[in-house]
Give the backbone structure.
Amino acid sequence: MLKINMELRKGVLFIRPCGKLNKHSCEELEKIANNLINNVGIRYMIINLESLEEIDKYGIRILTDIYKNIINNEGIFIICGNNYKIKKERLYKIGYQNISELRALKMVNI
């Protein structure tokens, strides 16, 4: 089961998924994120994986699609959160930083 906590702060959308981001749950995150990007105009997004229990190839694909959508809208996308349960090799390609949310917010620098 996936729970999604969201917060808008200083023009940056923070998304904090909790649980499992996999084939069965990733569609919900994709729908929410793309709606906010395309219809609300969110250009800056930080996704914190600290509370994520598991991510599979479908979850990584969704994060990649969200990343591309943000970049196409001339925005900034950062994945952060220190989580030892998740293999991060594939996440580094789409903006993973082993930093806190506060540091990620400073990197957005808006």
Remarks:
- The mean pLDDT is 87.
